[in-house]
Amino acid sequence: MPELPEVEVVRRGLADHLTGHTITAVDVRHPRAVRRHLLGPADFSDVLTGRTVTDIRRRGKYLWFALDSDDAVLAHLGMSGQFRVDAGAADHRHARVVLTLDNGDRITFCDQRMFGGLSISQRGAALPAEIAHIGADPFEEGWDPRGVARRLRGRRTTIKRALLDQNVVSGIGNIYADEALWRARVHPETPTGRMSVDRLERVLMAAHDVMRDALEAGGTSFDALYVNVHGSSGYFDRSLNVYGRTGEPCRVCGTAIRRIGVGGRGTHFCSTCQRKR
DNA sequence: AAGGTCTCCTGAGGGC
DNA sequence: TGCCCTCAGGAGACCT
Description:
Blueprint: H1 4-18, E1 23-28, H2 41-48, E2 53-59, E3 62-67, E4 72-76, E5 81-84, E6 95-101, E7 106-111, E8 117-121, H3 145-153, H4 159-164, H5 174-184, H6 197-216, E9 258-262, E10 265-269
Helix pairs in contact: 1-6, 3-6, 5-6
The protein binds a DNA duplex through residues 1-3, 32, 61, 76-80, 94, 111-116, 155-157, 161, 164-166, 173-174, 223, 263-266.
């Protein structure tokens, strides 16, 4: 499941292959992949063809191609989206959109479950209006964990739900939320309003740290669903402490990792290290 | 208004 | 062996 570190790996790969190049052809293989582009697949292709990519940018789990027209291609990988630069990917059964570049390279957006997709954001090169409502992510310059912690304290929800709310802090998904709470020794169902600002800030910094470590390992992947632009997996799944380890011993205290539902999401934690207070 | 629930989608895996 | 059922999850729509 692509979260911030995985999307950043993809962003870097795309930047290497796309920046400075002109898109000479756009082939939308499945209209659902561009459903967020309300003017339709034909308009998507028309607007994009002939444009030069000036930069690849990211906020949270969203990334976008800044274009020389000052528009942008906004992309979200959803559950299973991939960008691939290897030529064979265009023939993959889940290839949804294929971009051809001026040097003959093909960039393929593959997506098995199609929760993700692409759209054109008018004048969105700097920051697409469609995602202006989401919060800064922990890798952004000027990210203010203290300020975010204060905002969290005023909310009436649990810390696990709050971490997944992209409007407060973006980029954290189900895997890194569980890992951050384990590192910070906080029970996922703790009400945010009952936590101190210091403790909330420690959770946010734990999220920052675990995602930084994951990025260094090339991201997390359990199967072929999440891969970099060359189709390779990252290694961080070997470093996970709670996510996907139900019944296995906590690496700190040996207690069997528990799995519960919080807000309809599978939530993994150590009931000894992460006690309710 | 904010928080919670539903829904989209496909393939894997379990049960019989 | 094969079919059916359930589950997984990001985020926006929708409801309260």
